[in-house]
Amino acid sequence: MGVLDGYRVVDLSIAMAGPLAAMRLGDLGADVVKVEPVSGEWQRHAPAGGATGNRVNASFLSLNRNKRSLAVNLKADEGRAIVHRLAATADVFLQNYRPGVAERLGMDHTTISGLNPRIVYVSMSGYGESGPYMSRPGQDLLLQAMSGAMLSTGREGDPPAPAGTYAIDAITAYSAFEGALAALLHRERTGEGQRVSVNMLDAAVAVQMQELSVFTVGGVPQRRGSEPHGHTYIRAPYGVFATKDGYLALGMPRLDVLAVALDLPELAGMDGDADGHTRRDEITAIVARRLPDRTTAEWLEICARHDLWAGPVYGYADLVADPQVRHNGSFVTYDHRTEGTVTTPGFPYGFSATPPEVRRGAPLVGEHTRELLDELGYPPERTAELVAEGVLACED
Fold first, then answer.
1. Labelling 112: which of 126, 195, 228, 259 has CA 20 to 30 A away?
2. Which chain regions cross the lipid bilayer (predicted)?
């Protein structure tokens, strides 16, 4: 039994942010019904990294566990009626359609809350549901670029570089997840449902609360230096440095301690809080010249002895094999109906009484259509007729 056991979520979202938010609700025990076209959700046909799988690609599988699939044509009157009937039984309704699409399909907040006033309706968008950018495509890379974050790292003159993960998608997903949980808590206290609006632009701004406040409140300009640096608003040395056999991440060490650990007496008299910013390039260059003298393992041992913040730079193979990752159970392994035994990232939280779990892998298109229509009271013969008419799709 999970924290959200007994709650139902209707998930009409596509791509990453919406499906990830809905999956997290499913991980906590909610019955998540993924409503997708009879041909299947877009992510089924656009495998990230080219990992196609047998019948479910890795990217879809990673974002849609703990869900049931209802494959339905929302352009058909009875298709919309089925989803309306489902929404009347639900606690959360989540969609990330382009502006105007939910209204055209009859899946907007006014319609859904009219059917179920207690429902928590989560609407996700790229830039907001009004304003000059409302019709722009909300895509992770585009929002990373617009967020300003790309110019907080690296070296002046170098091209801005995106993060090594779909950062804005993930941040937006967790904003929607958090908003849904908060609105459910409000409903438990008052009996009232409500609309929760989340957009990628606001999520990208909000997650930079420290950096942007340094700029807006402190008036400190965002300036990259002539040496590579991990973040414009953090004192040097801060970043990734080449060693004799690889790389070392080094974060905000005390300069007097670092001077001893690295045998760099020129750092000993510097003030970390003042010089660490005003002489950032100089400090970075000094450290960068020293670290290739030893291996990463040697420097890690030295840094640990001096209580300096340092760590290795991993690739995915290193990450998966790491003893702390294995100890934490950061990945989960389970059997999937068509993909066999799979290993994917697990859960970002733990509960002593109601731990999250994988109850089912990502569904096939319409794998649960008959099951869900039966729960909604449709006779089997009518479901069969709707399948034949193309209103529904089933995985037999």
1. 126
2. none
